[in-house]
Amino acid sequence: MTATVSASGLHLRYGGTRALDDVSLRLTPGVTGLLGPNGAGKTTLLRVLATAVPADRGSFTVLGHDPGSSRGRQEVRRSLGYLPQSPGFHPDFSAFEFVDYVAILKELTDRTARHREVRRVLEEVDLGDVRGQRIKRLSGGMRQRVALAAALVGDPGFLVLDEPTVGLDPEQRMRFRELIAQAGEGRTVFLSTHQTEDVAMLCHRVLVMARGRILFEGTPAELTARAAGRVWTSTERAPGAKAGWRTGTGSFRNVGDPPAGADLLEPTLEDGYLLTLDDVDAEVATA
Amino acid sequence: MRRSDGGARGALVVAVARTVPWRAVGAGAVVGLLVVGLPRLSGPLAAWLGLPLLRAAALVFALGLTFLLDDPARRLTTPVPTRRWVRSGLRVALVAPVAALWWTAALALVPAPARPPIGAVTLEAAATAVLAVAAAAVAVRCTDEPEPGPSVAAGFLTLGLLAPLLLPTRWNLFVAVGDPNWQAAHVGWAAVLAGAALLGAACTPEPTHSLRARVAPGR
C-alpha cells in the first residue's frame, strides 16, 4: 500500500534529551496506533509530523508534500487535522463558532460552504444538538469532540490524534473509538495512546516507541504474537515474571519467561507491548 | 471551498478579533485612565505630577497588552495554513486604534498646565506598549505556553518598577521635563521603541531550528 506519510531519520533534541532518535516510519491509509510510555517521544513525534515543531535533522513527506520548505509546510497543513493532548479553547465561543474559527484558519473561506462543513463535522461527532452552546458549558467529553470536529473540518487527508481518549469515561471512550474508526475510513490517522485496547480495536498498524526510538512496527497481531508462549497462569506469583498480578479468579497472570511446564495463556496486545518495552530495557541494562 | 478574496480576509479579521483578550486589554485601559484621572478628584494637579501619572498609566495599559498574544487554543491552531505572523499581526492591528484612542483620552485627562510635551511622552508610551507586545511575542516564540500573559505581565511590571532605579544615570530614561537629559532620554526611548519593534517582528514567525517551542517534559 502506498505510504501517505513517510519519515526518514528524524532527530530532535531538547537540551540533553533525545526526544527523537533516528525515527523513520511509513503510514498508510487507516488508523495506525502509537504506543509508548511517558517520555517516549510520542507527542514530540506527532508535533513534528503535524509541523508544529521542526525536527533538528531528517525529513518527511505528507501526501507528497515536503514541509521542509515554507510552501510545502503550507500544503501539509492544508491536508492536516491535528488534535493535541490538551487542545484548549476560547471558552466564550460556542462549539459552532470555535469550529468555524478553526475552519477560517484552515482557509475555508466561502461562508456558506464553510458553515455547511462545520455543521457536517459537528453532526459527525454527535454535537449537532449542542452546537450553539458555549464551550465552557460543555462536558470534558463534549469538549474533546469539539476538538475532534476542529481537526476534521476541511476533510483532511492526514489526521494526527494525541491521546484523544485520555480522561474520558468508558462510554465516552467507546463513542470516541467509533469516531476514530469512522475517521480512519479513507484517510490516514496516526493515533497516540496509552490504551492498548484502543489500538487492538482500531488500528491496522501499530508502532511502539521508547526513548525517542521506534522499537516495533507491525500489525497489532504481530505485536501480540511477541508474547506468545510468554504469558502463563500460576497459583502463586512467579518469581521470574517481568510482571504478574492476581486476577479476579484468584490465580496469578504472569508475563515474562515461563518455567518449564507452565500453564500458558493466550497473550494480549498489552502483553506484547510490555514485553517489547522490557526486552529493550534489558538490552540497555546489558549494554 | 477554498478561495482568497476580500470576504475571506473579512472573515479572518472578525474571527481573530473575537480571540483578542479584550478583557485584559480593557482592564489595563480602565485602570490606566483611573491612574491619570483619580488624582484630579482631590484638587488641582501639580504641574510636576502629569508626567509620572502618564508614565504610570502607560505602564498599566502595557500590562494589559502583555496578554495580547495569549491564545488558549494555541496547541490546536498551531499547524493551520494561516500563518502565525498573520494572526499576531492582526491582533496588533486591531488593538492599535484602541490604544491610540485610549492614549488620547489619557492625555485629555491631564490638565494643560500639568501636561508634559505631548510628542515626547507619546513616544514613551508607544515604546512601553511595543515593548510589552514584544515581550509577549518572545514568550510565545520561546515557550509552548498557550497563555504566557500572566508571567509576562509579572516580568514586565518588575522591569517597569526597577528600570528607573537600576538604569545608570547616563542611560536614565525617566527624566523630568526640563532636565538637561530630556532630549537624550528621548533618543533612548526611540531606540527602545525601534528595538522592541524589531524584536517583536523577529519573534512573530513560526519557530525554526534555532528557537524552538519546547514540549513540556515527560511526553
Automatic annotation (TrEMBL), chain A:
Assigned keywords, A-Z: ATP-binding, Nucleotide-binding, Transport
Origin superkingdom: Bacteria
UniProt-listed Pfam families: ABC_tran
Domain ABC transporter: 5-236
Residue span of region Disordered: 238-259
Gene Ontology molecular-function annotations: ATP binding; ATP hydrolysis activity
InterPro entries linked to this entry: AAA+_ATPase, ABC_transporter-like_ATP-bd, ABC_transporter-like_CS, P-loop_NTPase
Entry similarity comment: Belongs to the ABC transporter superfamily.
Name of this protein: ABC transporter ATP-binding protein
Automatic annotation (TrEMBL), chain B:
Domain of life: Bacteria
Name of the protein this chain belongs to: ABC transporter
Source organism of this protein record: Streptomyces pseudovenezuelae
Coiled-coil blocks: none
Keywords: Membrane, Transmembrane, Transmembrane helix
Residues spanning the membrane: 20-39, 45-69, 90-112, 118-140, 152-171, 183-204
